[in-house]
Amino acid sequence: MTISHFRITRFQFARDRVIGDSQVRADDANVAALELVSETGDVGLGFIQTLFHPLPDQAEIEAVFENEVWPTLKGQKAIGLVHRVNRPRGGNQRAFSLPFHEALQVALWDLAAKQAGMPLHKLLGSRRDRVRAYASGLDFHLSDEAFCALFSHAASIGYNAFKIKVGHPDFKRDLKRLDLLQQSVPKGSLIMIDPNEAWNSKEALVKLTEIRDAGHDLLWVEDPILRHDFEGLRTLRHAVNWTQINSGEYLDLPGKRILLENHGTDLLNVHGQVTDVMRIGWLAAEVGVPVSLGNTFLEVGVHMAVALPEVEWLEYSFQNFDHLVETPIEIRDGYAYAPDRPGHGLVLSEEARKEWARPKRLDRSQLGAAPKNIRLPLDLL
Description:
The chain is α/β, with parallel strands linked by helices. The protein is 31% helix and 22% strand. The model has no long low-confidence stretch (mean pLDDT 96).
């Protein structure tokens, strides 16, 4: 039952649309699958991802992993490693040279749950198997036509909550996008906005007031100002009593704790690091702050979402990643469903390994056509 070896498979492919926000944009995907294999043949799967710069060649990824991570895993049992608490002092408190952190946590929890013979969400203590999903466009760089087409499609397949990107230098454009969204989805839909820290606290108050006065009701505004401006976030929470502040996305685990201690958010935004999410989720529950699951790779966050008591929402952004696994997470009628399969339920597709593996780094011009996105019509965008 101990971990005997690992596999890394590097992928690089075009996205089916430009994604991004007020600060960033990307039109390609740079991903590597991490598989931790036990002596009995069980496999724990996680994904290493960079957003804006290609990963190095597969051989280099393997060499870094073997040097920095593998000595702590070899011959160990996954169920013990997921509960291990390290001493965060001095040189021990540092990032890996490559972004292994999330992939490692997901792969270890997948392997631990498989060896326990349980779906991951049940191992984490779930009492339900589904959570509400909202449609998030990552839409800042889309044309108005593509923006409307994306959200109209989302509404047509059962979503009733939608999040758009704002924070444009011309605030009239933000207001126009909200008007277009209102025209594209049913009346009474829930609306969220995300400036991605484009504003300061007073600017956020002025603009949120103008959005309200223009007739747009918001369920929440996400990351309106700088992540470490705890005083500004707390002040904004009290000043903007007609909507909620959703923050924490850009903070690490200690940063999220400080955010909660400073009463800087109405909802705590977390992502895909299973151990970190459960730890901060327990703390958020103790102080009565709801948690929202932001984008997680291939929606693996559904397991944490249904296991934590304060989670109502999971973000879904229609990214073309589903071809990487045999069976993606089911999302239907505005709900994401946690699989009943052992582990997190995602298994690397052998067809994807054959067709889409790119051991050597390619130029963007060499990527060719994007993999088909099975959740979007071919001619939508």
